[in-house]
């Protein structure tokens, strides 16, 4: 009797594990058009699902392999047979063409000093500043939380560590000003309890907290499955 119960428990556990691994999650990260209310950003779908789009609809889906955009009208399978390798090659070609214009932020966790808005921070001790133009040296003044600090950013460097003396706490707001150009941005920190495990978890956290600039970077750097 005990061996029978053990067999049933093992079989049930195996079935549960199989069903969990075989039903992957796909996340809506962008939506426009008449059906955008049905498929809002943050909506999770199983890979077995199909979505119905009307004329003018556009939905971008993200899974663990990359991102792809579906445009209506029509009924479309959420799953794709495209390989992540092929998508990565297309993304690399896209990035190469894009590099002649505005450089792409390499990580959604970098703080782009040219963008205002909410910034989700998973590791406050390793927050990195990033700038799209690195040819010239600049002076960056960061003001907020009752303090102010000006840092020298050397030419040829596009990243710099956030000053340790300035607190990175949830709700704290800072203004970042460049004396050379007069450009400025205002950011508000949202601190996360821990770093998400994968792109899906990252996208869900960014969407839930309104960190839209970082979501754009995540989508742009994901391999294209189109």
Question: Explain this structure to me?
Answer:
By secondary structure, the chain is an alpha+beta fold. It has two domains: 25-81, no CATH class; 110-221, Immunoglobulin-like. Helices cover 25% and strands 31% of the residues. It has four helices and 14 strands. The strands form four sheets. A five-stranded mixed beta sheet has the order 8-14-13-10-11. Strands 2-1-4-5 form a four-stranded antiparallel beta sheet, with helices on one face. β4 and β5 (67-71) form a beta hairpin. The N and C termini lie far apart (54 Å).
Quick structural summary:
The chain is α+β, with helices and mostly antiparallel strands and 226 residues long. It has helices at 2-22, 84-98, 199-208, 212-221, and strands at 25-32, 44-46, 50-53, 58-62, 67-71, 74-77, 110-112, 117-121, 128-130, 138-144, 147-153, 159-161, 173-178, 184-191.
- The order of strands across the largest sheet is 8-14-13-10-11
CATH architecture of the largest domain: Sandwich
What is the count of β-strands? 14
DSSP strand (E) fraction? 25-35%
- Termini separation (Å)? 54 Å
Could you name the CATH topology of the largest domain?
A: Immunoglobulin-like
* Rounded radius of gyration (Å): 22 Å
SSE order, as H and E?
HEEEEEEHEEEEEEEEHH
Please give the domain count.
Answer: 2
- Low-confidence parts, pLDDT < 50 over ≥5 residues? 1-23, 82-100
Integer average pLDDT: 84
- Helix fraction? 10-25%
Shape, per Cα inertia axes: elongated
Characterize the biggest β-sheet.
Answer: 5 strands, mixed
Structural class: alpha+beta
Count, helices: 4
Quaternary structure classification: single chain
CATH class of the largest domain: Mainly Beta
